[in-house]
Amino acid sequence: MEQVSSTGRPVQITVTDGYDLKGFKGDAPVTFIRAEFNQVVLGDSAKIVVSPEGTAKYNFTCSFEFNPEGGVTLHDLAHKPVFLTMTEVLPKEKKQKEEKTMILGQAVVDLLPLLEGESSFETMVPLHPLPGSPLEPLRSGIKQCSLEVKVFVAEPLLTVAQISGGNLLKVTLEAAYSVPESFIPMGLLQNFMVGLQVPSAGEKDYPIFFKNGTLKLGGEREPVPRPKKWPIANILAPGANNIPDAFIVGGPYEEEEGELNHPEDREFRNQAECMKKRITWDLESRCYLDPPAVISFQKRIADCRFWPVEITRVPLVTVPKGKSAKFEKTDDEGRLSFHGVAYVNMVPLLYPGVKRIRGAFHVYPYLGSTVYEKTKCLFSLFRDTGHNLIQHNKIGGINSPVPKPVISKNLKEDKTVKEKDMEARPRPGDVQASSIKSQSSDTPLEVEPSLCNNPEGQQYVEAGTYIVLEIELDKALVPKRMPEELARRVKEMIPPRPPLTRRTGGAQKAMSDYHMQIKNISRAILNEYHRMFGNQAVKVGSDLDSETLEEQKCQLNYELNCSGKYFAFKEQLKHAVVKIVREKYLKTTAFESQEELQKFISELYVFLVDQMHVALNQAMPDDVQGTPSTIYTSSEQLRLFAFEAEVNENYEMATVYYEERLVREPQNLEHWLDYGAFCLLTEDNIKAQECFRKALSLNQNHIHSLLLCGVLAVLMENYEQAEIFFEDATCLEPTNVVAWTLLGLYYEIQNNDIRMEMAFHEAFKQLQARVLQAQVTKHRSTSTVEYVEEGGKDDSCLGPWGITSGSSTAAVKVEVPAGLGAPLSILDEFLDESSNLQSESHEPILSVQSQDPTTSQKPSNTFIKEIPSKKEASKCQESSTCLHPTLYSVSQTPATIFMETIRFLMKVNAVQYVHRVLAHELLCPHGGPSCEYYLVLAQTHLLKKDFAKAEEYLQQAAQMDYLNPNVWGVKGHLYFLSGNHAEAKACYERTISFVVDASEMHFIFLRLGQIYLEEKEYEKAKKTYLQVCKRSPSCLTWLGLGIACYKLDELTEAEDALSEANALNNYNAEVWAYLALVCLKAGRQLEAEQAYKYTMKLKLKDESLLAEIHMVQETVGFGNPSF
């Protein structure tokens, strides 16, 4: 950490003017200024008389030499200011030999701008008065006295490389709370000290000490904001202790990076920081890190992760004036007591863009072996350099940092000598403890038993002592990509595609022009007809015979030809016809043969006549027969039909429905996401990537599109693009739990443990904040419900992922985990329009499909890698979290950040990615096997048709939550797919009997109705299909209802239901087959033959149903035209 330059350079400090000055005696006091730096007096100014206006021109210049090799270093400039002390020279009294002086005040000049690359700066510094000084303002509002100061160096102290590669470290020690009860303010004066080491580029570390902590009894909370203080003693003016523009502002516990930042720690911290004893410092120490030191600092954090911050108590020694104290080396270590250590996790400083960490850290007994195991630190600042501390622990001396300890190069030998010394004489800092763990610390400490019993260090643990510390850097060690850069990179990969402008020409315009000309010509002909035969038509009325009409037609044609109007009409229509030929038929070149020309003219003539009739019918609607109304299928219905096709493994029909949605609304990105999720189900990753990128091109700020593009990039091993997508998502929506978790999973694939921990930790914080906010909202809503109606139900929930609360009157467990892995888990949310599940969400639900349980999936073996359990457990210590159940619900399923991500991935059919997240969920301390975990596993095995494994996991899920309707719903699907319809029927009936619906009720009703039809329980089948038709009508639901009614000989109801099914999907051969049966039994031959024709055309596959049709046809004697 030494400066490269070997020559000293002077730093000049010039005090030019003073303002609003006052003295003890007279209106024109005589004053002078003394400058001090680094315990050295730089000089005194001349004695200047202050004007009656309170101004004085000092023009006093002093300097000190900056020489990093043997004098003032960059560290001194960083944390030591220049003190300017103003003294008044009092007038001599009679018989007085020497002048008397009185100190008025003291100003502080911070030299930090010199470390920012500046060679000179000017500042107006306040002159802080001493107690009793006339400079003290008598009332508020009076201007404070000040000095104008200029600082100058001939050339910048830092090179360009040092400015760009160096850094400034600021460490702020606020206080130690809940200290042992044995700490009392009476008796022998004690110096409470805290120290830590900062690595440098060389072999020696730079120590930072905080001394002279103030022991307080408690009773009130420390005020915020409060100023930070210089780590220097014997400052004369109280106000000069404060660092300019530096304050301790505090903040919510949940936003800290320390150990005591969980909800369960809030009560303890409130009590400790209000009522219990504490030691306050409020000191800020600075340290300059040159580029090699920054690299060393970064490497040490990556290697050690935790930083030891030591705390101890040393008796204060009073030194008489003019004498120096001498100490025996054998007594040095005996003076240390209550030697403890806090382990500060410095890893967040390696997170991209992070410059500051602040938090509360538990204090543990100092044990050398434990400290080395946790931090790889061999030496103690207080124990191994105790003689230096004692020499500087005197009342009356300036409290400056201790000289660097001389560390032996042969660390092993030095450690051996110290271990022998430990065996000969016990250390007061060692303590016997088997296991130490904070209330909510994510880093439990296993401490080996010590041979000596030291109750002093153990008192920190018993009292729950913790220190509040802040570490801040001027620049982040790891720069973070700016959101603008990420957005630019995304645009480079996926350019935004604005909707295409509608063409003014084209086939549609040509047709509309043709229709318009037809209407104009028809009006002209009608006008001509009325001119010629209007009077005759009025007399005769509507009794015109055909001969009269034919005669009038001939006369009209003759008149049009003679007048030339016929040719005018042809010319008027010619341009529109030419446009149709060019735009509709794309004919722009000459025909090769006469036959081809005649064929095209015939085809064109038929088309033009048909279009003429269309235009005339539009112009004269009274003469047009009413067209039958068509049932318009909405986008949501098409999505439901696609779901049904997926469940039945009819992927061709599902593709038709998805593509129809895209044709209708090509600019709707949700349609593209749905189609992409379907492509993931069918393992068409390339097409899925195209769909997700198309959605992102429509809206480059859409979070779910970014996440899905990132997931596909990982699956296709485009890792650089995946990082861009995930980072951009976290920048656009920093509160998105899934985005941070997916980013952490990406970093795990890249073996970047530090960034993985950062992402998981941020996801944990966001999930915790969201749940706390939901609990507050839920508490308010519950209180309102209870006020209006005692004992009422509260159906609100925590978020969109199915973590719901239940009524106290319900005898079931209220739980709807949307990520349980059952097919179409989001379907009923969409069908029931359960907006209450989204009312309190910070993340909108992605409208995409879940996967089909009947589809075989093959997860990528190259993507899923084994995760060592020990390493995983350590990673999850910091990153995992649990949603704490509220007091207002019967039961709730804990959710971790990984289960949140699993739910999202299962909704979009990213099963290949789910396996990795399941491994995290299993190994997380707050996760592990749960009902939802086993449900997800069961679905993944259903996809692979591994029914035995799926049944095993469902049994485990049922053991954990026997009253969960989703468990029984998925079990019903398992038995249905495996052919055990009796067991499936029992499971489905149990599912629909619950008060709370399962996640996939649509298909539970469909399959239960099918089982009823197979077992000839037609009344139950009718009732079941009626329920599902009310909830979510589709072709299959109406078909089932129609079959049940047909079997019950309710032909009218059957025909109505089948007609509804046919209107929703007229390509279903089974619907036409039952329509044929109904028409045969109703005696309607024409309809029966038409229905049978379409049944055969669509190739009905049910041979038994076809045989039944033939039997009924033979019975009634019609219905088959081929007879």
TrEMBL record:
**GO CC, alphabetical:** axoneme; extracellular exosome; manchette; sperm flagellum
Keyword Hydrolase set for record: no
* Alphabetical list of SUPFAM superfamilies matching this protein: TPR-like (SSF48452)
Spell out the Basic and acidic residues composition-biased ranges.
412-428
**Would the keyword Transferase turn up in this protein's UniProt record?**
no
Which positions does the entry assign to TPR repeats?
1002-1035
Keyword set, alphabetical order: Repeat, TPR repeat
Q: Name a single GO biological process.
A: homeostasis of number of cells
InterPro entries for the chain: CFAP70, TPR-like_helical_dom_sf, TPR_rpt
PROSITE patterns tied to this protein: TPR
Q: Which PANTHER family match?
A: CILIA- AND FLAGELLA-ASSOCIATED PROTEIN 70 (PTHR44314)
This protein is called what? Cilia and flagella associated protein 70
Origin species, per record, is: Monodon monoceros
Q: Gene encoding this chain?
A: CFAP70
